[in-house]
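Supplementary Methods. Inverse-folding protocol.

Structures were first reduced to a discrete structure-token string of length 239. This string, shown here, constituted the complete conditioning input.
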């Protein structure tokens, strides 16, 4: 169950595509570059640049806009400015929430000196580095890299799998040491009992967080669909 919880946290890295336990009908096919003056949407659907006051450059040309089109462009870029940070913050918060919850369980079950805690801290930092490959934080704004999604998903799962190997070994070693200190004739039974208690605690925590992970995926999907509909409406009129 620890693996499932950590994998769910890793999958929030791909939240822009709403793939975290929820298949979305829309998959992004454009990078988004946000800075104080403009929002740029570029990729398979062309190159669209919108200023904050609604001026548009589309595939290198500046079309004449009606008042309605200008408002449409302003609304679309404002939606992007709102949605991208919301997704980034939501994904990061859930990774952090997962780390805190798992760390608390480790402290309760294994003690504050457990090596499992440092492995979890390292994994948390690695996952957040992966997040920045998808939604990059720059000094003047954010950039969403749609082509990074699949690779980050694979790399994130690999990081979790590697961490799980070390965490499992640490748990066996530390529970074995505890069982030896307690004495008795059946050290293995003590280790297995400790592992069972740890698994139960993590399973209960996963049940607490599972609904939130899934709802976040659905909420992200709703926003991605809305953005795609806005983009199509705007560029369709420009054509």
């Amino acid at each position: 169950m620890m693996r499932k919880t950590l994998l769910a946290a890793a999958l929030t890295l791909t939240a822009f595509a709403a793939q975290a336990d929820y298949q979305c009908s829309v998959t992004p096919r454009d990078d988004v570059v946000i800075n104080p003056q403009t929002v740029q949407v570029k990729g398979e659907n062309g190159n669209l640049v919108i200023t904050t006051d609604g001026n548009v450059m589309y595939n290198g040309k500046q079309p004449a806009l009606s008042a309605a089109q200008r408002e449409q462009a302003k609304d679309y870029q404002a939606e992007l400015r709102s949605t991208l940070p919301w997704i980034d913050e939501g994904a990061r918060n859930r990774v952090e929430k997962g780390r805190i919850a798992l760390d608390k369980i480790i402290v309760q079950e294994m003690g504050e000196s457990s090596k499992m805690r440092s492995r979890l801290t390292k994994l948390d930092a690695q996952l957040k580095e992966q997040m920045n490959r998808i939604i990059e934080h720059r000094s003047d704004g954010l950039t969403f890299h749609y082509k990074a999604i699949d690779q980050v998903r694979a790399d994130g799962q690999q990081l979790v799998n590697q961490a799980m190997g070390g965490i499992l070994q640490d748990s066996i070693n530390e529970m074995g040491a505890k069982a030896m200190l307690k004495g008795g004739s059946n050290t293995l039974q003590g280790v297995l009992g400790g592992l069972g208690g740890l698994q139960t605690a993590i399973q209960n925590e996963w049940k607490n967080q599972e609904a939130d992970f899934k709802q976040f995926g659905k909420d992200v999907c709703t926003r991605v669909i809305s953005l795609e509909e806005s983009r199509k409406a705007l560029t369709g009129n420009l054509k």
